[in-house]
Design brief:
about 40% helix; 2 domains; alpha/beta; Helicase, Ruva Protein, domain 3
Amino acid sequence: MQERIASPAKTIEILQANDFQFAKKFGQNFLIDLHVLDKIVRSAQIGPEDVCVEIGPGIGSLTQVLAENADQVIAVEIDGRLIPILEKNLADYPNVTLIHQDFLKLDLQAKLDEMNVTRPIKVIANLPYYITTPIIMGLYESGIPLAGMTVMVQEEVARRMQAGPGSKDYGALSLAVQYYAEAKIAAFVPQNCFMPRPNVGSAVIQLTSHVDKPVKVNNEKLMFALIKAAFGQRRKTLVNSVSNSPELSFEKAQVIAALQKLQLSEQIRGEALTLAQFAAMANELEEA
């Protein structure tokens, strides 16, 4: 086993040797806690048959552990200054492929095809707040075969992903994630586990992809437009938020009729509906 990159002393040594300065625009916070790294790998259930895609490897702390457990690791890093550091730190791991690119602009399916990867992948990431939702939803909506995702995010975001109806954390992200996967917080991670220290706590959340979707909906696009409308004007009734949405073209009477068929009050707000009820609502409105 190679010396762990993630130890505080080793991380400082690498940063100083390369005169590396953290870039705020990339939301860089490198993990320096070996126990958390092991917990991520255990939560993701990484095994010798797995292909892992890591988003934002930094200096390779987690990449190193993934490479020792998985068949292949594809690490995508946006910061060009980190590529030579990664190449040096991971020189002893031939099963790691480094890609210097913005993950949001990467055609991941084309890269997987190029590498002859045909099995479902596992995505691992320590995600900055500003790109958490676009990356997670982009992956699900892309149709790429996903066995699951294990991501480090802000604690508040992790709570939102697994929240249920009626709670303050429940929202569009909760419903979207739960449509595609089972969400479970695997660990809470304090600020002192990172360098530099972030302003808020983080959490590791495990998203295990559903084999079959938990609800039957005829038009996914319509269901998500309803969800977006409902939480875009959270304090309004569902009737008002849907009928006033510029992305939808339903009259109040149509929305009320759909709610009545579902035996729901016309005064109900979107935050009170379950995923199954949003799906049923979409099916009713599509018929209308």
